[in-house]
Amino acid sequence: xxxxxxxxxxxxxxxxxxxxxxxxxxxxxxxxxxxxxxxxxxxxxxxxxxxxxxxxxxxxxxxxxxxxxxxxxxxxxxxxxxxxxxxxxxx
Length: 91
Fold this sequence. Notes:
Layout: H1 3-14, H2 18-37, E1 42-44, E2 48-55, E3 58-61, E4 68-71, E5 74-81, H3 83-89
Antiparallel strand pairs: 1-2, 2-5, 3-4
């Protein structure tokens, strides 16, 4: 399911216009993005949680040349599936 299909499902279930359904989904996704940008955790009970994982800098290797390269510290978003979603998918 992609974003357009989510909009269609929201429109169908709530009898909203396509524009209103799009706005709701945009607000939802933007809110998650803003919270993660502030290093906050987003938890949707029964579905999932999103959080930011921090990595320290380390020395890596360029696979093409073999030379050592300094990898700077970084933060990446992570998704963790909730228990109820796991059970729903794996009957």
